[in-house]
Structure formats: C-alpha cells, structure tokens
Amino acid sequence: MIRDGHPYHRPGLRSALIEAGLKRARKGGADALGLREITRSVGVTPNAAYRHFADRRELVLAVAARAQDKLAQAMLDRMQDVADQADPAAHAIQRLRGVGLGYIHFALSEPGWFELAILLQEEPGGESEARVPPPYQLLLDALDGMVAAGALTPERRVDAEWVCWSGVHGFADLATRGPLRRQDRAVVDKLAVHVVNTVISELRA
Q1: Residue range 77-95: mean pLDDT, rounded
Q2: Measured between alpha carbons, how far is 160 from 169 in angstroms, rounded to an integer?
Q3: Among residues 145, 126, 12, which one has the least CA distance to residue 68?
Q4: For residues 36 and 173, what is the distance between their CA atoms, to the nearest angstrom?
Q5: Which of 63, 82, 114, 184 has its CA 20 to 30 A from that of 72?
C-alpha cells in the first residue's frame, strides 16, 4: 500500500509521470491523460503529482511539450534524410520539403502525440510560454536556409512560415480528422507530396 507523503520527492518522479503520460497519450491522445491512471502506473498517489504539477492541466502541458519534441525530431529526421546535392538551392528546397513531409507523416503515424503537440500550440502555458515551439523553429530555419542558398528571395521570405504552416497543417488536419482519414495511406502520402510541392512552388513563384 502506498502511503501519502513517502513518494513525493522520489528521484525522477516528475520525468516518470511525464513519460507515463506520453505512453498513455500515444494511443488515446489528451483524453487518456487521467491523473489517477498516470500516477497509478508509476506507483504513487495523485497527491504525489501535485508536488511537481499545480494541476492536471500543467501535467498535460508538460506531456504535450514532450510530444512536440517528438514531432520536431520526426521533422528533423526527414530534413536530414536528403541526399547531398552540389546545388545549394536544390538542397535547401529538399530540406524545406522534409519539414512539411515530416510534419504530415508524424500526424498520420502518431495521431495521439500529434493531438498533444497541437494542443500545446493552442493552449500555451507553463514551460511552453518560455520557448519557441521546436517544430516552428525548424520551419523558420529551413526558410532562412532557402534565402541563404538563393532558393528564396528575401521579399518572398516575409511571413512565408505562415504560408507553409497553414498549407501543411491544413492537410494534416484533413488527413487525420477530416474527409481524407478514410483514404488509403498510399493515396494520402501521394497527396501529401503534392501539397508540399505545391506550397513550395507557390512560395517561390
């Protein structure tokens, strides 16, 4: 039997609670983040969690930040998975394409975590207020890289992140919660490539 008070300062408890929440959210999204279920899974009472989080919302936002990091890593992996090219402009374009396709692929492959990552953008608070969302930073860096490589003019760079994000996130939303969610994955992947390529082409036109 767990005694209230004993596990409050257990080393690594905060991280353990976040990891437990991340595991539950992978299949169930934010709705799966019940405080009692999370604390039970790591062997403490709900009271122990309140030594590390003010309330359930703060715990959810901490788990969402971890999900957002996973989204950023998926995007970074896709950016780095491009062949080196002699033409710096072509290489920069491929990296920007990786940003968009990495975002969509994560949304399709990890809908529970993606829901949480977006939740953090819609409802900032706690730790999230002090940092630029890593996925957003990757987009900014890729666009700046386009300018540095001569693939995008400084004039077209202005507010280009919103053009990219609205197009890619809109498609991800259609594919995970809208009319495309019942389509075969191969069809959706093909459409994703078309959408990302179109966004980049329009951005450079």
Answers
A1: 91
A2: 14
A3: 126
A4: 30
A5: 184
